[in-house]
Amino acid sequence: MFFYIVSLTFLITIWSNIINLVSHSVYFYGMISIVNTELYKDCLKEINYSFGNVFIFKEFVISQFCRGEVISWENQIKLMVEDIGAFYNSDGSDVVYISNRINSYSLVAADWLKFYKSNYKVKAYCVVSQNKAGYLNSMIEKLFFKKEIRHFSNLYEAVNYVKQGLIEIS
C-alpha cells in the first residue's frame, strides 16, 4: 500500500510538472494582480516573501506566487500558514483561501496531506486561472484536498463568491 501511494504521488508530481512546463508558454491574458485592482485598498495586511505575496482581507486571503517557483509545504506553505494563522489568531477553519494564479509555477499537490496532518484547516479554497493547465493542476490538487476546490476565471468572480456567502461549510 505504501509503495502504491508513493508511486501515485510520484506520477502525479511528474504530471503536474509537465503541465506547468507547458503552461510556461501560455500568456496569462486578462490575469490581474490584486495590487492592480480596487480590491487592494481593502487589504488589511500584505506579506511579501521571496516566493510570492499574501494579501490578507477581512473575509479571505489571496496568494500570488512568483513565476517558476516550486511551492512545497516545507519551503513555503508552512511559513505562510503560520503567518496567516497568527494574523487571524486561528487554525484556518474560518479562512477562505484564494490562489490568484497570475504566474506559472509548480505546486507539490501531495503536500495538502502535510497541511492536514499539521492540524491546519481552511474554510474554502478557490483557484483563479484562465488556462487549461491551471484547471488541470486544480484537478490534481483535488486528489489530496479534502473539500471542494472552486475554480474561477477571474479574481472578481472568486471574491464575489466569497463575499456573497456562497461557500458551503462541510
Automatic annotation (TrEMBL):
It comes from the Bacteria. The chain crosses the membrane at residues 6-29. Keywords: Membrane, Transmembrane, Transmembrane helix. This is STAS/SEC14 domain-containing protein. It comes from Algibacter luteus.
